[in-house]
Design goal:
single chain; 58 residues; mainly alpha
Length: 58
């Protein structure tokens, strides 16, 4: 019975670890204005602002 509980807890932990979240950079929560691509680049630490610029999306 004890090993069943351990197995159940481990499987539940594995299921939760597979969850992912997405980050939306379209609005700044403080002012409601769109977040500029350069600022999003600085926040997320990427080398290029291209992924954050709506005109550069393919």
């Amino acid at each position: 019975m004890k090993s069943f509980v351990v197995l159940l807890v481990c499987s539940f932990a594995l299921m939760l670890s597979g969850c992912s979240t997405t980050v939306h950079t379209t609005r700044n929560s403080n002012s409601g204005k769109p977040l500029p691509p350069g600022q999003a680049k600085k926040i997320y630490g990427t080398k290029s602002a291209k992924p954050f610029a709506p005109g550069q999306q393919k």
